[in-house]
Amino acid sequence: MAALELKQQLKLSQQLIMTPQLQQAIKLLQLSRLELVETINQELEMNPVLEEVQEGGDGEENADLADGGVEEPFQEVEVIERVREDFDWDSYLDEYSSGTPVLVETDPNREWPTYDHRLTLPKTLEDHLASQLRLLDISDAQKEIGALILGNLNEDGYLDANLEEIAEMANASVDEVGEVLTKIQLLDPVGVAARNPRECLLIQAKALELEDDLVVRIIEHHLQYLENKNYQALVRTLKRTPEEVKAAIDIILTLDPRPGSRFNEDTVEYISPDIYVVKVGDEFVILLNEDGMPKLRVSAYYKEALSEDSKVPPDARDYIQGKLKSAAWLIKSIHQRQRTLYKVAQSIVRLQEDFFEKGVAYLKPMVLRDVAEDVGMHESTISRVTASKYMHTSHGIFELKYFFNSSINSVLGESVASESVKERIRQIIKEEDSSKPYSDQELVELLEHENIKIARRTIAKYREMLNILPSSKRRKTFWGSRKGT
Length: 485
What we know:
The protein is an alpha+beta fold. It has 22 helices and 8 strands. Strands 3-2-5-6 form a 4-stranded mixed sheet, with helices on one face. The chain has a two-stranded antiparallel sheet with strand order 1-4.
């Protein structure tokens, strides 16, 4: 049995250590412009050594002011108010002496709500219906049932709970819940609290009080023909003229199958591009968007505090030294980020020149490796640089990731960008005859004539990504062609 013994061994190896400074540089690399501005502002608050270079000012002038320089004396402007001699004071007093309530702060130590707590929030569907429910001539018990119904509505305005569940929660009968539900369904928007789209449309149709019940018959019994746009079957089944069926369908199309959706509209977020690409003469010029981005520098005051003549205590000197290193690294990292972003944008413009000249149809297949090899960087760096960044071009604003897309082999063996194929599909469908829309197989054949080889299932996938309906649901009404007959 071999004896165990301890030995010392010297080994030399290289290892990459992620220092905090390196982690910060990588983090800055993948931030968008707005996120970078926010990060810089946070650093300005946390690091006293950092200061912002003022617009239109020069560094020496700002340093003089920081060192206690004297500014030019400010000359006061005297404001003289003159009142017209013919001013009607009686009318003024009558108009403004009404008992308008005035907020008077009697307790100076009282904490008043901040501004953001006094902002008006958008009205929700539940709030909108609750204000109407309070005005209904019903009992308090019925209002409690109504509140439970409103609390179980989804974002489209449909009731997610059944009547038995609400009756159990309200300790009431199912008939009582159904009675309150009927009243709520006639509130604004009409059709809210329905259980399914058919019921929602029926409530709205009956609220119109139409003389002819054709609209109600279509919704109750033949909605599947309307969904598939099989209008000829509707005419045959209902035994009515095409004109009458068309008039009924036009009314149904004005109804809202999602009555609660208008209260759930998302706030529009405006994109601020990080890069502008502008054509000047025969060349494309790349401009980085630095609007609102603070220009940083290290404070001269704290530099002076580290000089040999200063009488700063050792602890304070170490603190300032650490903050100076942090500030210098931040400024260096920001400059490095901007240079890297510019190089990547320059490479994208160079590799996708046909796109910038002619549009989306001329986008070439490209992967991260292509740009990485062009600028001499690693693919992971390119991935971080292109994350959450947008480029403004003459054809619109595009995310940098948009330019990296897969390739599709053409009939002649060449490669075509998948985004170009999507754009071509969209154009073909836009120009098709609405009475005879192209099927997915017909789109395959059309693209094959244009030297694009693509499978039918890929066409269906791209069509769904473009939010385009299948041919059976893109077909328009048939009676447009009957008007002249």
